[in-house]
Design a protein that fits this description.
The protein has 151 residues and is mainly α. 75% of the residues lie in helices and 0% in strands.
Amino acid sequence: MRPTRPGVLVGIVVVVALAAWLLVRLIYTDLVILPWTAVPTVLLLAIGEAYSGWMIKARIDRKPGTKPVEPLAVARMAALAKASAYGGAMFAGLFAGFALHTLQLFAKETPRVEFFIATGSFLSCVALIAAALFLEYACRIPKDSEDQSPK
């Protein structure tokens, strides 16, 4: 599995944001009010992944007081990190497109509230992407000094 490239994630965010902006612009009046619950939910996921990354890194580096980690568990965590990064990028783009549209209607009360909800959701998705990239980094196999010596 190759590491996730941040440039690809940024590209996904931009493309999905533009598509969401175009779609929301057409059907905004038919949509229900954007729920605020995405913000704490995604932030909790980001905190969980960041903590998992911190713990996995300590176990892989064999810090004192930690147990060795199972290789299959590390592979699963790396797959979770990769999926979370791409999923976070998709949802970040969706919320960014929604925020772009509601920014244009900022003078009205309901779109103003939805702008803040969409912006908070976007920022929490960015935090999830950062935590996922950290977890993926933490799952890398360390290079031993023996492996680096010329033979």
